[in-house]
Design goal:
alpha+beta, 3 helices, Aspartate Aminotransferase, domain 1, 6 strands, single chain
């Protein structure tokens, strides 16, 4: 897609709108990047480039990484077990559908963790 950061931000806002029916979802920041949160928990945020980074159950994150649909997130030298980065696709609509579906999974996962 080679989206500009503005397009990625537009996509993030569109994902938030798609998730509105799931309950409270709002914009927040993580590592100085715009993201989505429910209550105080961030479940997705924009990475550098055309990526949306999401928190998913470890098995699901591994499945996506194994299939090539995502990459594990590494912070410094540590690979984060439940965080993956999902690349943008060649077009806006496909990216929106993919990011929304996975963000919905991330939202439900984070909510299941409790406070």
């Amino acid at each position: 897609m080679t989206a500009t950061s503005e397009t990625s931000l537009d996509l993030l806002h569109a994902v938030a709108q798609q998730l509105a029916a799931e309950g409270p979802v709002e914009m927040g920041t993580m590592f100085r990047s715009p993201g989505l949160r429910t209550c105080t928990k961030i479940f997705a945020f924009l990475g550098h480039g055309d990526y949306l980074i999401m928190k998913l159950p470890r098995d699901r994150a591994n499945e996506l990484a194994s299939s090539g649909g995502a990459k594990p997130v590494t912070m410094g030298t540590r690979t984060m077990r439940e965080w993956v980065e999902i690349p943008a696709h060649a077009d806006y609509g496909t990216t929106l559908a993919t990011w929304t579906a996975l963000a919905k999974e991330a939202l439900h996962f984070v909510r299941s963790l409790g406070d």
